[in-house]
């Protein structure tokens, strides 16, 4: 497969994203005003709660099976490594560039979360369809490409809406708290402000009042040891577990897309459910096709929102040019190099098979631009939408060249 043919294959999906982004920008202009702030907010909620979950459920139920999960176990590990390495590089970037606090979550999220959904779904099968492709000799290339891309979509969505979502939300929420306190709202009392005596001097024979009016309570050693042995060990473990789980908000960790990914995988690997939903002769096939029909609108709507947010970023953006260059370096240079090292090491130790297409997809997962869902998150939190759109536009524009060059190198390494 020559460089020109590969360039055409790789540039088409990225060019589609840029064109739809331009449409979203046009619809957000003041003269048009079809995607104003209120319209974006409603559309974003529809994508978050309806379109993206429908896309994940239908796609995973149709392509993922128990056999594919058993043979492709390293791919989830590989995707997790892309997030871990990207997070580390993003953290180094915000320290070097001294990124403002409220933008650090966006920078780390853009570095760690890649577009592991629509780009692999478009690019990888398209590579198989080329007559001079290095993978065209296999009759099952297109089928394998769909499975690889679908599993990449599933694992990427799980990590994006759990890991990256938590990072973006943490910085957005902390910024909101700071702004609310500065506007005059009452903040929670600190420990330093609570200096009154907890017990008066008349309570208990063991309280001793010091000169600074604080109370020091001492208990005899016998009572202390008795109290320690009074509670069984297993009850202490239960209490510790409850104290930890009480601090975890499952509603914020399990976003709709995360739940949809889990449901889609269950539908795919559980044979009785799969026979009911998947296939032309399945009794409930209409449910699967309806979900697929709704899910087809997810990616275009996300891209339109990104383009409409770009108008705000063009007018007023706090994102430093040095930060954008750093994100480009992370996603277009450092991560792809890491992908080559990880995949070659995994192949050397027998963690991946001899399939050249599988190795190509593992490397490809490191070279994709940031996930468009990062823009969806900032729209949900109403923080950093313009800056995120500027980052996405720059990274996708560069990806039209970098993704082609890296794909050429990846094919030469696995062919």
UniProtKB/TrEMBL annotation:
Gene Ontology CC: endoplasmic reticulum membrane
Pfam family, one: Mem_trans
Coiled coil: none
GO terms of biological process kind: auxin-activated signaling pathway; endoplasmic reticulum to cytosol auxin transport
Keywords attached to this entry: Auxin signaling pathway, Endoplasmic reticulum, Membrane, Transmembrane, Transmembrane helix, Transport
Keyword Membrane set for record: yes
Membrane topology: Multi-pass membrane protein
Annotated compartments: Endoplasmic reticulum membrane
InterPro entries tied to this protein: Mem_transp_PIN-like, PILS1/3/4/5/7
Transmembrane segments: 6-30, 73-94, 106-127, 147-172, 253-273, 285-307, 319-340, 346-368, 389-414
Function: Involved in cellular auxin homeostasis by regulating auxin metabolism. Regulates intracellular auxin accumulation at the endoplasmic reticulum and thus auxin availability for nuclear auxin signaling.
Family of this protein: Belongs to the auxin efflux carrier (TC 2.A.69.2) family.
Protein name: Auxin efflux carrier
Species this protein is from: Corchorus capsularis (Jute)
């Amino acid at each position: 497969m020559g460089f020109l043919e590969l360039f055409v294959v790789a540039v088409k999906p990225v060019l589609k994203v840029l064109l739809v982004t331009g449409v979203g920008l046009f619809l957000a202009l003041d003269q048009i005003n079809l995607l104003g702030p209120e319209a974006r907010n409603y559309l974003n909620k529809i994508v978050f709660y309806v379109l993206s979950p429908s896309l994940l459920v239908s796609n995973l139920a149709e392509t993922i099976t128990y056999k594919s999960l058993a043979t492709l176990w390293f791919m989830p590990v590989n995707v997790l490594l892309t997030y871990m390495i990207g997070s580390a590089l993003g953290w180094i970037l915000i320290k070097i560039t001294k990124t403002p606090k409220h933008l650090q979550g966006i920078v780390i999220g853009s570095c760690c979360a890649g577009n592991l959904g629509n780009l692999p779904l478009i690019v990888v099968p398209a590579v198989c369809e080329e007559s001079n492709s290095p993978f065209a000799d296999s009759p099952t290339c297109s089928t394998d490409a769909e499975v690889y891309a679908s599993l990449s979509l599933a694992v990427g969505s799980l990590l994006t809406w759990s890991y990256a979502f938590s990072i973006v939300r943490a910085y957005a929420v902390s910024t909101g708290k700071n702004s609310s306190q500065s506007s005059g709202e009452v903040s929670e009392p600190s420990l330093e402000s609570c200096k009154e005596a907890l017990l008066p001097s008349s309570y208990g024979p063991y309280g001793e009042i010091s000169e600074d009016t604080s109370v020091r309570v001492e208990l005899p050693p016998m009572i202390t040891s008795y109290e320690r042995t009074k509670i069984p060990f297993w009850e202490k473990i239960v209490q510790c577990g409850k104290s930890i789980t009480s601090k975890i908000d499952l509603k914020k960790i399990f976003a709709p897309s995360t739940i949809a990914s889990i449901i889609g995988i269950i539908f795919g690997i559980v044979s009785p459910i799969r026979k009911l939903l998947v296939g032309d002769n399945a009794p409930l096939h209409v449910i699967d096709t309806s979900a697929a029909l709704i899910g087809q609108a997810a990616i275009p709507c996300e891209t339109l929102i990104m383009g409409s947010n770009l108008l705000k970023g063009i007018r007023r953006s706090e994102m430093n040019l040095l930060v954008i260059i750093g994100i480009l370096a992370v996603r277009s240079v450092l991560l792809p190099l890491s992908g080559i090292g990880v995949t070659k090491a995994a192949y050397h130790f027998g963690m991946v098979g001899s399939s050249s297409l599988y190795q190509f997809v593992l490397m490809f997962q490191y070279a994709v631009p940031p996930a468009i869902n990062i823009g969806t998150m900032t729209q949900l939190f109403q923080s950093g939408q313009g800056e995120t759109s500027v980052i996405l536009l720059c990274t996708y524009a560069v990806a039209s060249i970098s993704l082609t060059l890296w794909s050429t190198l990846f094919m030469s390494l696995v062919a």
